[in-house]
Amino acid sequence: MCLGIPGQIIEIIDEKLMQAKVDVAGIKRPVNIECIVDEQHPPQKCIGDWVLVHVGFAMSRIDADEAQRTLDLLQELEEYQEEVEAIKSSQKELET
Amino acid sequence: MKYVDEFRDPAKAKALISQINGLKEKLGIKDGAMPIQLMEFCGGHTHTIFRYGIEPMLPDWVEMIHGPGCPVCVLPMGRVDNCVELAERPEVIFTTFGDAMRVPGSKKSLLQAKADGADVRMTYSPMDALELAKRNPMREVIFFGLGFETTMPSTALTVIQAKNQGIKNFSLFCNHITTVPTIKAVLDSPDMRIDGFLAPGHVSMVVGERPFDFIADVYHKPIVITGFEPLDILQSIWMVLSQLAEKRCTVENQYARIVPPNGNPAALNAMAKVFELREFFEWRGLGSIDHSGVKMREEYQDFDAEVKFAVPLLKIADPKSCQCGEVVKGVLRPWECKIFGGACTPETPMGALMVSSEGACAAYYSFGDIPQLLAKREQQIKINIKDKSA
């Protein structure tokens, strides 16, 4: 109930009722998009957008740049970790 | 799945754990000292922590406390009794999210009421309940709305649509609860010693970052708004610990891909239009908390099941043996409760936290090593008796 699931808006069903068809993990169902439209994002402009769907409502447009920024940081940490492990194992090799 | 799988990469989890371990010295942790306690408020986080085995990955000087943020778990028994009574009216189709079906009332759960012949239907969305009302004009369709600010906009928008479309046989039984007064109640409890918080990501998506400022400004605790994948949780734990190590406390947002700083204005508008604060709301395990729930405004009372069916507000005490209150405050660990795994199990829950898979006790029961936990409890009891007699 409280967990959202990412989906992609594929068509607008009813602009007045703010209803769009969203592909959520392969299931296509009507989703209310009232919370993610405004003057800059009228319904027709939402097609193709990735949104987080909660109980049949699109509650947030997923910010692709922010997602990338988080992943980049995690990637850096992973590479840093690999470096550290390489240094450690090299030291071990020298000691044996 | 896009935006899901990439936040579950084990190599990155390992790197984050190594970062967390690296903070031990900076935090001045001495061996054998009391661990740092971090609370994840939200039941969704609790679920991720158990499902992905995050606790065993953490060093022993970090302890996760599983907070009260599972709306199904904290639903008081009197409210469930109200639901059952509404559902048993012959004209009523009673609809709800699936999670609420098994919550025990003082007599029965909604699932048992359904087995006894009541017309109870699980719906994924409140909009589906509205659609049922349109298709069944001779019946009264009630949607049982519960949840924090995450689900509040969806029921508010559904009620607004019902009003706009003149669907008179639809009503909402409103049991929504609010996050901030509840966190405050936890912070104000005298036996609380939590060092930092993971803030609920999807509540924040609606309300934004600012409502959590008081936790840093007034209570001087770090708090990080957190997503729901395992890497989100680990990154946030690292961020809270980093704040503690640097002696900072502020609201940080790990979940910026979903949570804008100001939340969702359209959702907040819809909520403000339909709902207003209640004086207080009763919680399972926590008792009554001021302003911790909302009711429907007078303009929408034609769609308010509480008014339409004159629902009496029943007050039914939690079973005496339950220690849910101590568990949600982090004073007791779930398995330290006297009835955990004995009288109280997910099949026959006594206490709130055993009800939903997002509850701390149910999570321990499903994912933990039960014989080992119970043995640990026995041992603690023995030590306590020895201490007392010494």
Features:
heterodimer, A: alpha+beta, SH3 type barrels, 2 domains, five-stranded antiparallel sheet, 1 helix, B: 390 residues, alpha/beta, Rossmann fold, 3 domains, five-stranded parallel sheet, four-stranded parallel sheet, globular
| CATH architectural group of the largest domain in chain A | Roll
Largest sheet of chain A: 5 strands, antiparallel
Query: How many separate domains of chain A?
Result: 2
Q: Total number of β-strand segments of chain A?
A: 5
Q: State the name of the first-level CATH class of the largest domain in chain A.
A: Mainly Beta
Number of domains of chain B: 3
Quaternary state of this entry equals heterodimer
CATH topology of the largest domain in chain B: Rossmann fold
Number of helices of chain A: 1
Main sheet of chain A: which strands, in order across?
A: 3-2-1-4-5
Which word captures the global form of chain A?
A: elongated
For the largest sheet of chain B, list the strands in their spatial order.
Answer: 2-1-7-8-9
Most extensive interface: A-B, 38 and 54 residues
Average pLDDT of chain A:
92
Total strand segments of chain B: 13
User: Span from first to last CA of chain B?
Assistant: 59 Å
Uncertain spans of chain B:
none
Number of helices of chain B: 16
**Strand portion of chain A, in percent?**
25-35%
* CATH architecture label name of the largest domain in chain B: 3-Layer(aba) Sandwich
